[in-house]
Design brief:
six-stranded mixed β-sheet, five-stranded mixed β-barrel, 3 domains, Ribonucleotide Reductase Protein R1, domain 1, Rossmann fold, 11 helices, OB fold (Dihydrolipoamide Acetyltransferase, E2P), 388 residues
Length: 388
């Protein structure tokens, strides 16, 4: 069910549609705007970012939505140099009007974000961690993965961890299901990535399974499409919109890899009233997350770890290791365990960058863990040798 947002005109008290609210501008954002806005400044939402220019939607004359191409103000750029963030797609911002009051001229500031998809910037150096904001004020993340040779649960896990760090619901959307004999196998594998992960099967060109996405596609709510190039994000967006609003290209037949058809992030409004942010495929998913997000993304592994005899168990040769027991019984997938360990190291690195004391503690801990794992490997080889 969709609700029409209304406000009352001061002139005659008649209700009228407030289209800015349909873009997600609610009472909370209104309060944030009123705290900082000056005369001649208006609220707007960033719908496109491209080479230093921002496409924004705002309430124009007669209360109708209007769109304008603007730049960041000099003051905002200066603030960014000392630690603030430039606007990204999905942001609510305060924009200055032009002298005639008819158009937006520049962005003065960014309103507080309710959620932000962030990753370490591609090519980060070991001595520097730079954050890249992929999308803001998102309610759910559609992690688009194709049912083909590029299917990778480990890659999906990284997206899921980013979603939990952002505080939004992760939804694995499995595309190209018409190309495989048993799409249910992919669905089961995605659902095994955690109790809080939703997964659906779709064949976008045929419109099959799209109705399963309806719970997240409601008026005024925003979802972001994430995934590798060639996974079918643009095709999915076109199917949801019912028209060709995003360019698509075929996957290369020689290496089964996708081409980058989306070159920048952009927010679209669907006929249902839902808002969708399309984004270019990510070659690297550099994690920028904390221990809480990792624990939520790997709740099953963390549950086994909590049952280990020792709190600082390295899950190697220690006695009473519940994780190792689960691996040996087949209750825990080795690939998922290894993915958890890898992300643990990345999260620990980020924590160490923030606090040198943490760096020293982590160095000692991983030295102990590596020693324990060498003992576990040696033990397994001994057992395998005797069994022969």
């Amino acid at each position: 069910m969709y609700y029409i947002h209304v406000e009352f005109s001061d002139a005659d008290g008649a209700p009228r549609r407030d289209e800015l609210r349909d873009f997600g501008f609610d009472q909370g954002f209104l309060r944030d705007y009123l705290e900082v806005a000056l005369p001649g400044e208006i609220p707007a939402r960033v719908v496109e970012v491209q080479r230093g220019r921002y496409g924004i939607m705002f309430r124009g004359e007669g209360g109708k939505l209007a769109e304008s191409d603007v730049v960041a103000s000099g003051h905002l750029i200066h603030e960014t140099a000392v630690g603030s963030s430039l606007p990204t797609v999905g942001d609510w911002v305060v924009a200055r009007l032009s002298d005639d009051g008819r158009q937006a001229a520049s962005i003065k500031g960014v309103l507080p974000r309710r959620s932000a998809f962030m990753r370490r910037a591609s090519g980060d150096k070991a001595d520097r961690v730079n954050a890249q904001v992929l999308a803001a004020n998102v309610d759910a993340a559609f992690i688009v993965a194709a049912a083909d040779a590029r299917w990778s649960p480990r890659r999906i896990e990284r997206y899921v961890t980013l979603a939990y760090e952002a505080g939004v619901a992760p939804v694995v959307v499995i595309t190209k299901t018409d190309l495989v004999d048993c799409p249910g196998d992919y669905l089961a594998e995605a659902q095994a990535l955690g109790p809080g992960v939703s997964a659906v099967l779709v064949c976008a060109p045929n419109g099959q399974g799209l109705e399963n996405l309806d719970p997240w596609l409601t008026i005024g709510k925003t979802v972001v499409l994430l995934g590798s190039s060639g996974a079918g994000k643009s095709t999915l967006l076109n199917a949801l919109a019912g028209s060709e609003i995003a360019a698509t290209k075929a996957v290369r037949s020689d290496d089964d890899r996708g081409r980058h058809t989306t070159t920048h992030r952009e927010l679209y409004r669907l006929p249902s009233g839902a808002l969708v942010i399309d984004s270019p495929g990510l070659r690297e998913i550099q994690i920028l997350a904390g221990e809480a997000a990792l624990a939520e993304a790997f709740a099953d592994v963390e549950a086994f770890a909590a049952s280990c005899r020792f709190r600082d168990c390295g899950h190697g040769a220690e006695p009473g290791c519940a994780v190792r027991a689960a691996l040996e019984k087949g209750e825990l997938d080795h690939g998922r365990f290894n993915g958890w360990r890898k992300l643990q190291r990345e999260v620990a690195f980020l924590a160490a960058r923030e606090d040198p004391r943490v760096a020293a503690e982590q160095a000692h801990r991983w030295k102990t863990i590596n020693k324990s794992m060498r003992g576990y490997t040696k033990e397994r080889r001994s057992i395998q040798g005797k069994s022969r």
